[in-house]
């Protein structure tokens, strides 16, 4: 994928020109941008404070910013106008400087979204230099997750930054299988949530499920390093569990929370922008289209826009601060929709027509959506994939069938620039490359029957015994600026 360029400032700057009323000139040497004053006030804390300060600058038609660069400001304007550009190294440095100086949260968010193994060290060092803490924390966590692949390159960083990047706890691959509620006298010791010990290449118990919790046809998701289970059925009548369950990994405790207004099963649960979304599913053996959003802070559920049509077990994923679902429509049509939160609607992103035997799964890596399906024909032990690039709007077929003798790919999760897949016989880590997934290592499978849910959690440091209490484990690491010699 080609990087965008800000080389031709005079031509690209025209995109920022607005009508004279309500505009202000922003000058960088010989380069002048005519920008909507309201746009700057909404998105830039620096300009918002300036325009309401009463200082003479807030009444001037032209503002001079000698500390910043024109290319960096152009990237800022592109992001403010809704673009999501892939940036070169020089553009990254200048964009970070602008984000830190002007306090542009939407630009910081975009920089967080495009962190990868090629640019993470540059972003980490530059974010430390300019004191952009959100990006600094995000890149530190990314590097920690990819440390084995990056450890030689990390040596080029200043010593204090090297030491700090070793502080966070890396993400662990966690899986839970299908289980129904049990009673205390007949506690099922297989009712466990397990994590993958990559050093020993084996699964270990993280926690036991609460007695009343069900993962049979439930919604399972992670939000802010906490595991949530909603819905699920029990006994022969398939009654829906009417409590939600939350596992806080930092305290090794379970708690309950309210259920959606519309009880459901065979549904999908996803965490996005601080909220949980429960999507579709079934109620009284009828497939439904309703969606509800759960606000963790207030323990309340509210209805969001309905799906375009009723659907159960919806494939969904988040990437680039966006939420996507994939609906399969017989015969052989997959449709990807994006949830537009500001407008509370589902918007069709793209349609794929491919022969499919049954089932599908979707995962995301940066601006790529990977749609996996079993097939071709009736060969459900093989998995084929197509990739949709959000930047180019193009589909491409992934070469090969990602076939292995140990079974089909039913579930997957992305960590850094790797993706893990798991079935009963094998857990495989792939390196995500431009047009393929390359096998990195293979470990033992998850030896449980039924469906599986996979996700990532940052597990606190543990004692040598698997089920003892954790020592500590903050989810986000905040480093004082002076301890990494940051300057404004």
CATH topology of the largest domain: Neuraminidase
Q: What oligomeric state best describes the polypeptide chains here?
A: single chain
Biggest sheet record: 4 strands, antiparallel
Any idea of the CATH class of the largest domain?
Answer: Mainly Beta
Name the CATH architecture of the largest domain. 6 Propeller
Biggest sheet, strands in spatial order?
Answer: 6-5-4-29
Instruction: Find the count of extended strands (DSSP E, 2+ residues).
Output: 29
CA(first)-CA(last) distance: 33 Å
CATH level-4 homologous superfamily of the largest domain: Kelch-type beta propeller
Helical coverage, percent range: 10-25%
Total of DSSP H or I helical runs spanning 4+ residues:
10
Strand content: 35-45%
Which secondary structure elements does this structure contain, and how are they paired or packed?
Layout: H1 9-12, E1 23-28, E2 31-36, H2 37-43, H3 45-51, E3 62-64, H4 70-80, H5 89-102, H6 105-113, H7 120-130, H8 133-145, H9 147-154, H10 159-165, E4 171-177, E5 192-197, E6 202-208, E7 218-223, E8 226-231, E9 233-234, E10 239-240, E11 244-248, E12 253-257, E13 268-272, E14 275-283, E15 286-295, E16 300-304, E17 315-319, E18 322-329, E19 333-340, E20 345-353, E21 358-365, E22 368-374, E23 383-389, E24 394-397, E25 411-415, E26 418-422, E27 426-432, E28 437-444, E29 452-458
Parallel strand pairs: 1-3
Antiparallel strand pairs: 1-2, 4-5, 4-29, 5-6, 7-8, 8-11, 9-10, 11-12, 13-14, 14-15, 15-16, 17-18, 18-19, 19-20, 21-22, 22-23, 23-24, 25-26, 26-27, 27-28
Helix pairs in contact: 2-3, 4-5, 5-6, 5-7, 6-8, 7-8
């Amino acid at each position: 994928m080609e990087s965008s360029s800000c080389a031709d400032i005079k031509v690209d700057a025209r995109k920022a020109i607005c009508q004279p009323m309500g505009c202000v000139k922003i000058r960088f040497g010989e380069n002048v941008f005519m920008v909507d004053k309201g746009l700057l006030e909404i998105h830039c804390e620096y300009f918002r404070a300036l325009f309401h300060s009463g200082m003479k600058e807030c009444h001037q038609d032209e503002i001079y910013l000698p500390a910043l660069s024109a290319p960096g400001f152009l990237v800022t304007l592109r992001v403010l106008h809704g673009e999501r550009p892939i940036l070169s190294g020089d553009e990254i440095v200048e964009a970070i400087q602008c984000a830190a100086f002007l306090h542009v949260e939407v630009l910081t968010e975009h920089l967080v979204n495009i962190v990868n193994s090629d640019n993470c060290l540059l972003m980490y060092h530059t974010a430390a230099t300019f004191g952009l803490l959100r990006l600094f924390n995000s890149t530190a966590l990314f590097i920690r997750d990819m440390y084995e692949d990056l450890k030689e390159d990390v040596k080029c960083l200043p010593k204090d930054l090297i030491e700090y990047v070793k502080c966070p706890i890396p993400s662990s691959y966690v899986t839970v299988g299908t289980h129904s509620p049990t009673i205390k006298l007949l506690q099922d010791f297989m009712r466990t949530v397990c994590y993958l010990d990559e050093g020993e290449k084996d699964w270990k118990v993280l926690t036991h499920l609460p007695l009343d919790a069900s993962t049979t046809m439930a919604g399972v998701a992670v939000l802010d390093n906490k595991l949530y289970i909603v819905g699920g059925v029990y006994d022969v009548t398939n009654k829906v569990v009417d409590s939600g369950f939350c596992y806080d990994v930092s305290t090794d405790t379970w708690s309950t929370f309210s259920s959606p207004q519309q009880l459901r099963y065979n549904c999908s649960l996803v965490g996005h922008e601080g909220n949980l979304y429960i999507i579709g599913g079934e109620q009284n053996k009828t497939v439904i289209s309703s969606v509800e959003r759960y606000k963790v802070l207030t323990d309340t559920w509210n209805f969001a826009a309905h799906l375009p049509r009723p659907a159960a077990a919806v494939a969904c994923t988040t990437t680039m601060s966006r939420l996507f679902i994939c609906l399969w429509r017989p015969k052989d049509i997959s449709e990807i929709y994006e949830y537009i939160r500001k407008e509370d609607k589902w918007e069709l992103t793209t349609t794929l027509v491919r022969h499919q035997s049954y089932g599908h799964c979707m995962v995301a890596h940066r601006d790529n959506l990977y749609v996996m399906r079993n097939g071709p024909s009736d060969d459900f032990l093989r998995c084929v994939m197509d990739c949709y690039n959000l930047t180019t709007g193009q589909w491409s077929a992934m070469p090969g069938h990602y076939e292995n003798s140990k079974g089909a790919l039913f579930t997957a999760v992305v960590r850094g620039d790797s993706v893990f897949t798991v079935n009963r016989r094998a857990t495989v880590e792939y390196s995500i490359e431009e047009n393929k997934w390359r096998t990195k290592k293979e470990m033992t499978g998850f030896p449980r029957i039924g469906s599986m849910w996979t996700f990532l959690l940052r597990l606190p440091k543990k004692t040598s015994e698997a089920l003892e209490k954790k020592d500590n484990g903050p989810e986000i690491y905040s480093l004082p600026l002076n301890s990494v010699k940051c300057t404004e």
